[in-house]
Amino acid sequence: MKINKPKHDVNPDLAKERLKCNFNIEEVTNIIDGGKDKTVQRKKIEDIALNNGASLDEVPEECLSIKERYENAVRKSCVYGNLVRNEMLEITGIENFESPVLRRTADAFFKDISPFMLHLGMFVPTLIGQCTPEQTAEWLPKALDMQIIGAYAQTELGHGTFIRGLETTATYNPEKEEFVLHSPTITSYKWWAGGLGKTANHCVVMAQLYTQGKCHGTHLFIVKIRDLDTHMPLPGITVGEIGPRMGFSSADNGFLRFDHFRIPRENMLMKHAKVEKDGVYVKSAKHGKLTYGTMVFIRVTLVSEMSFNISKAATIAIRYSAVRRQTELRPNEPEPQILDYPTQQHKLFICIATAHAFQLTSCWLWNTFQAVLADMKKGNVDTLPELHALSSCLKAVSTSDALSHIEQCRFACGGHGYMLSSNLPFIYSFVAATRTYEGDYTVLLLQTARFLVKASEQAEAGKKLTQTVSYLNRTANADRLNWDNTHEGIIKSFQVIAAGKIGQCVKSIRDRTASGMDYEDAWLMTTVQLVGAAEAHCRAVLLNTYWSEMRKITEASSADVKKVMHQLAVLYLMYWALEKTGDLLKYSSVSKKDLDELQRRYEELLAELRPNAVGLVDAFDLRDEILHSSLGSYDGRVYERLIEEAHKSPLNDEPVNQSFHKYTKPLMLGKL
Ligand SMILES: CC/C=C/C/C=C\C/C=C\C/C=C\CCC(=O)SCCNC(=O)CCNC(=O)[C@H](O)C(C)(C)COP(=O)(O)OP(=O)(O)OC[C@H]1O[C@@H](n2cnc3c(N)ncnc32)[C@H](O)[C@@H]1OP(=O)(O)O
Ligand SMILES: Cc1cc2nc3c(=O)[nH]c(=O)nc-3n(C[C@H](O)[C@H](O)[C@H](O)COP(=O)(O)OP(=O)(O)OC[C@H]3O[C@@H](n4cnc5c(N)ncnc54)[C@H](O)[C@@H]3O)c2cc1C
Question: Which residues bind FAD per the record (predicted)?
Answer without folding.
Answer: 155, 194
